[in-house]
């Protein structure tokens, strides 16, 4: 694959290859010797049309730890503000011959469209409600480190599935690896036709969390909601927020996950988010750097081997 646009289309073997390489970097990142020159001379451009803390920082750190040069294009101070289109911006950056473009955009499909116009590797850092592949890979690495496998696990993805590219990428990855995914959310936050992705649907947290190995909470994306359905935050937390009482329905060793940013007291109670035994939310962030090192390495090397043409 010249690009990483989504989990869709990746085989179990390809996912395992990325995770094995990421595990190598996860171990290296805990030593004093975090850097290498494996991507020396390569240029990575981060082009983010939406806000980010984790993804942007970890892609920058990942590229720098591999010895690449990194440019962060801040859309707010760029010529995008003067009306330059996505494709013109991408072609402008492409003319500077980067090896990789890391792109986040609010429209589903925008990153794929851009990848068709440029001749460097493109990594999707989240496009609309479509996919966020490096998030699913870092979640998978975190799960594998604790459970020792990615098959035959019961995973509950809870909350605002309707607006979530994280949910879609995780469903695709976990299904590909042989786990079972349940979605737990009010009917208004379950997108239509999602059953076709091979998931079970629950509307009640107690029922949906029963015997789960993994409880993955999603942020209520109020900024993507409009018109009639904006839930009351208090009511949402009461029925769908993860607290100790609801968590008691999952397996005693169930992992608590959240991609971040968290809204404490909305979809997750602080007591559960900060549970030192079972919450792996900080480890997810740590694995984000490792996964982005692995994917940048694989794609930039692939790009170099193909003579610099995507
Ligand atoms: N999980 C995630 O994508 O976080 P950011 O929006 O902070 O990058």
UniProtKB/TrEMBL annotation:
Carbamoyl phosphate binds at residues 54-55, 104, 132, 135, 260-261. The keyword Transferase applies. Residues 3-144 form the Aspartate/ornithine carbamoyltransferase carbamoyl-P binding domain. GO terms for molecular function: amino acid binding; aspartate carbamoyltransferase activity. Keywords: Pyrimidine biosynthesis, Transferase. Pathway: Pyrimidine metabolism; UMP biosynthesis via de novo pathway; (S)-dihydroorotate from bicarbonate: step 2/3. GO terms for biological process: 'de novo' pyrimidine nucleobase biosynthetic process; 'de novo' UMP biosynthetic process; amino acid metabolic process. L-aspartate binds at residues 82, 165, 219. InterPro entries: Asp/Orn_carbamoyltranf_P-bd, Asp/Orn_carbamoylTrfase, Asp/Orn_carbamoylTrfase_sf, Asp_carbamoyltransf, Asp_carbamoyltransf_Asp/Orn-bd. It catalyses: carbamoyl phosphate + L-aspartate = N-carbamoyl-L-aspartate + phosphate + H(+). Pfam families: OTCace, OTCace_N. Signal peptide: none annotated. It is an enzyme of class 2 (transferase). Its EC number is 2.1.3.2. One of its GO terms (cellular component) is cytosol. Residues 153-298 form the Aspartate/ornithine carbamoyltransferase Asp/Orn-binding domain. NCBIfam families: asp_carb_tr, PRK00856.1. Belongs to the aspartate/ornithine carbamoyltransferase superfamily. ATCase family. Heterododecamer (2C3:3R2) of six catalytic PyrB chains organized as two trimers (C3), and six regulatory PyrI chains organized as three dimers (R2). Catalyzes the condensation of carbamoyl phosphate and aspartate to form carbamoyl aspartate and inorganic phosphate, the committed step in the de novo pyrimidine nucleotide biosynthesis pathway. PANTHER family: ASPARTATE CARBAMOYLTRANSFERASE (PTHR45753:SF6), ORNITHINE CARBAMOYLTRANSFERASE, MITOCHONDRIAL (PTHR45753). This is Aspartate carbamoyltransferase. It comes from Thalassospira alkalitolerans. The lineage of its organism: Bacteria, Pseudomonadati, Pseudomonadota, Alphaproteobacteria, Rhodospirillales.
């Amino acid at each position: 694959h010249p690009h990483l646009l989504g989990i869709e289309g990746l085989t179990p073997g390809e996912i395992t290859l990325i995770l094995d390489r990421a595990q190598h970097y996860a171990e290296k990142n805990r030593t004093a010797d975090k850097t290498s020159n494996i991507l020396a001379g390569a240029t990575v451009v981060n082009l983010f049309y939406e806000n980010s803390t984790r993804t942007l920082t970890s892609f920058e750190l990942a590229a720098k730890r591999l010895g690449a040069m990194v440019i962060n294009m801040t859309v707010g101070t760029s010529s995008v503000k003067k009306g330059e289109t996505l494709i013109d911006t991408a072609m402008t950056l492409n003319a500077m011959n980067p090896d990789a473009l890391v792109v986040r955009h609010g429209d589903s499909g925008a990153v794929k469209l851009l990848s068709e116009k440029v001749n460097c590797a493109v990594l999707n850092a989240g496009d609309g409600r479509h996919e966020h592949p490096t998030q699913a890979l870092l979640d998978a690495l975190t799960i594998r480190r604790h459970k020792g496998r990615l098959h035959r696990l019961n995973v509950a993805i809870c909350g605002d599935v309707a607006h979530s590219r994280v949910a879609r990428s995780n469903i695709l990855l976990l299904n590909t690896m042989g786990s079972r995914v349940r979605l737990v959310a009010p009917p208004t936050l379950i997108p239509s036709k999602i059953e076709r992705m091979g998931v079970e649907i629950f509307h009640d947290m107690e029922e949906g969390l029963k015997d789960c190995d993994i409880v993955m909470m999603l942020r209520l994306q109020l900024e993507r909601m409009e018109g009639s359905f904006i839930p009351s935050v208090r009511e949402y937390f009461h029925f769908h927020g993860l607290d100790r009482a609801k968590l008691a329905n999952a397996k005693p060793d169930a992992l608590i996950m959240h991609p971040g940013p968290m809204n404490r007291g909305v979809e997750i109670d602080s007591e559960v988010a900060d549970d030192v035994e079972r919450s792996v939310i900080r480890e997810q962030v740590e694995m984000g750097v490792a996964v982005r090192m692995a994917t940048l390495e694989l794609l930039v090397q692939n790009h170099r081997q193909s003579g610099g043409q995507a």
